[in-house]
Amino acid sequence: MTTARPALDPQLHELLADMPLMSHLTPEVLAQVRPLSSMPVEPLLEGRAIDRREVTAASPDGTTIPLSVFSPANADRTAAPCVYWMHGGGMVMGDRFSQIDIPLEWLDEFGAVVVSVDYRLAPEASGMIPVEDCYQGLLWIADHAAELGIDPARIVVAGASAGGGLAAGVTLLARDLGTPTIAAQVLIGPMLDHRNTTTSSLQFANGPGVWTREMNGFGWRCLLGDLTDDEVPAYVSPALTDDLASLPTTYIDTGSAEVFRDEDTDYATRIWAAGGQAELHVWAGGFHGFDALYPQAEISATARRTRTEWLARVLPTNPAV
Q: Are 248 and 278 in contact (CB under 8 A)?
């Protein structure tokens, strides 16, 4: 029996009709699509006053973690905000340039320094490794705040899809370990719950859209390996977290027509229940990643603008900026 589900936004439906879609991932398919999972960053930088440099952080096991730092060029700033970006890709693909156009808009708007991390991917890296890589990148930012010209009190952790789940996990780690300070977290269609059993997950088995329940299950299996449900850390699957108190102010958005809708709305609800502040947007007819894939669509432009307006409200003001 087919499960009833919300329809796609008409404009998105028309755009998606021209895209070849798949509903399943396998190791063989992953090997084919991984090289295609990120666009070159250079075209995004053309004509923009942006300085770029490549640095590395070190993981506890000695692995080098690449970071790209994008800063406003020729800017005399000593206390800029910083956006720390974690890319999407289902935990199994993408790189630090995936969806980088989203935080670069905040560089343009706020003069923010954008730092993007190349965390290790599953299945080669499993369990806590990706979120620990991201946390080490955050520590690097805090340790180099003066060098980067950023205000350590205005670090925003942000990510889309798998990156949104990692951003949530990093924020929980920073809270529990007591450092560093995070001013806000932006979770865009975050991948938060390995159980993959919500109503929205069941509704979007086999599509439509670019990320199905089956693909989601594949990504989680790659990340978790042989871990049983009882062994999955809440930092890896943040929906498992019992305590969502004392988190920084949070922005969550998702689509009504996507797998992650219900786990994302539940996460926001539980932040409120714990006395925290969260802003939640469920975009009617949005499929997973709609605003990154089709930024020209009206709903996408609205979603991106709404996130930017929220950041403008919540970032503490600084007279030096």
A: no
